[in-house]
Amino acid sequence: MSEMKLAFVSASNDEATEACQALSARYGNVPAERADVVIALGGDGHMLETLRASIGGGRPIYGMNRGTVGFLMNEYRPEGLPERIRDAQPVTLYPLRMRAVCRDGAITEGLAINEVSLFRASAQAAKISITVDGVVRMDELVCDGVLVATPAGSTAYNLSAHGPIIPLGADILAMTPISAFRPRRWRGALLPHAARILFETIRPEKRPVNAVADVMEVKDVVSVEVWEDRSVRLTVLYDPEQNLEERVLKEQFAP
């Protein structure tokens, strides 16, 4: 069996950079475009950055936690890394694509692995209409914001906003309001993964709204279209005992 080519990429914190240096000396470190597997060293934010950077490359990502939370990461252990990678289980992720139109007519597209969010950008609540697959489902949501989350992102900001946790294989997206004022009791919706969602801001000159695809922010939007882009396929590798599907399932029973 030929030697596995690994590319190590680290976050900027001391733990991650020290681990990168040690692992590179032990296993070698090739450029990502020549690697069989890319090793991300850091926390969940760094994993998302690495996944975004890998789009179009087709290389699997194996993360090890050298950050804070590390929900998306495997445990950090420097020993036997090639063997762990060979035994790892692949998980396929599909990102959301956002198409945002601003008040000045500018159009911006971006990809989100976790969620696409809309937020009020002034002291006044946002007013947003919601259309799903060409049907207006809510004429006016008065809120601080609203988001659409992937199954992988359902345990992130979506969960903090009291949205549902979605098993990875469910082919479902979560739409979750952020501090809804009217209708006050609306808790969101579960949508099929093929749904095409359109948010339109009401009176954006008076109630400005910004849109965010993971970390990319677009200001002063008038409409935001969101859909799952299955033309983009991301592969993440997990140790059998760290399987992401099991972790997401366990989160639903967390105290």
Account of the protein in words:
The chain has 255 residues and is of the alpha+beta class. The protein folds into two domains: 6-93 and 233-251, 3-Layer(aba) Sandwich (Rossmann fold); 96-228, Probable inorganic polyphosphate/atp-NAD kinase, domain 2 (Tumour Suppressor Smad4, Sandwich). The protein is 17% helix and 38% strand. It is built from five helices and 17 strands. The protein has helices at residues 14-27, 44-54, 81-87, 157-160, 244-251, and strands spanning 6-10, 37-42, 61-65, 89-93, 96-102, 107-112, 115-120, 126-132, 135-143, 145-149, 172-178, 189-192, 197-201, 209-213, 216-218, 221-228, 234-238. The strands form three sheets. A six-stranded antiparallel sheet has the order 6-5-16-13-8-9, with no helix packed on it. Strands 12-11-10-7-14-15 form a six-stranded antiparallel sheet, with no helix packed on it. Strand 5 and strand 6 (107-112) form a beta hairpin. The longest helix has 14 residues, at 14-27.
